[in-house]
What does this fold into?
Amino acid sequence: MSQRIAAVVAAIIGACAVSIEFGTTWLIDGFVDGGVAAEWLPQLETMGQTAVAYSYASQVLTFVLTFVVVAALGYWAGTRLDVRREYGSLAGHLALGGGVGYMGGLVVFILLVVGWSTPSDPILGLGLLLGMAVATGIHFALVGLAGAALAEFGFTLRSPLNDAPTSDADPSAETK
It folds into this structure.
């Protein structure tokens, strides 16, 4: 059950990531062209500064979603699974969820925001879409497994400076 929940959450994250990524491009185009987006969003002194600021904000949000949140999702799943036995299945669920979410989010974005137009080379367009979805799926699987590994192998936040030697430690090692 945890793997299915992880797949659904990964799909939502993938759709959000693609919306942020392509939505920012759409907004920047609106700033440059003086379109609708330029009317309701805050702007800096120049269009160039505004475009750079929104591009950087998009990159930070996408990083947080696709690395930090997916790793946390993997950690969450790792606390509920025997990762050593089920890592392949978890990776598959995360990859499928992330890839389908990314592809679905991109298709919805194209249909609702950009408007559908037949590309000059539909095979190339489909190949690019599938390639981005597969790359996102692989990314989600690897980052999610890293989070699950942290849960499996007992990740704790502690400073090595504050660690006291255990009773099993060799007392002569401290004086050397």
About this structure: The mean pLDDT is 80.
